User: Fold HTH marR-type domain-containing protein from Pseudonocardia halophobica.
Amino acid sequence: MTSPGTGPVPDPSGRRAGEAVLLAAARLTALLDEAASGEGLTPLQARFLRTLRDPVPQGRLAAALGIDPARVSALTRELAERGLVERVRADGDRRQRVTRPTPEGEAVVARVGARLAAATPLTRALDRVERERLAELLERVVSHPGAPAAGHAEQPDRPLADGGSPGGHDGSVKSM
Assistant:
């Protein structure tokens, strides 16, 4: 349906859904900020660690996080200094170096995940079936070809304890 000279009339349900997703994202981002800062991490550092389920080359990390490869190098260095990640030679190609979590890095990821799970009141109003359906719908939304990359709106890189504020950024959210 179109109005004369104005193009298609927007679907009000699309706007309502978009606003609800943005509000939920803002609240979840604040929870991630809090969970990450509880471990002395920035939200980006927490996302970086979570991405390292397996040893990963720097370029793939940059693509997965939607950030510049130089920033990945800096994050790797910062987290390696804290004993949370290490750079090692790749098993299949000894010329390539990959980043992997240390046991302490894996423990930090588990603790951040537990903090998030314990502090996520947003889904308590839903039963198990509703939570599964919500997860399916959100996965469909973020995997749509028109969706921005995961790191499109990069979060600030400073721990909240050092002056950051929950929700005080432009908020790309990636679940822990």
Q: What stands out?
A: The domain at 27-141 is CATH 1.10.10.10 (Arc Repressor Mutant, subunit A). The chain has a mean pLDDT of 79.
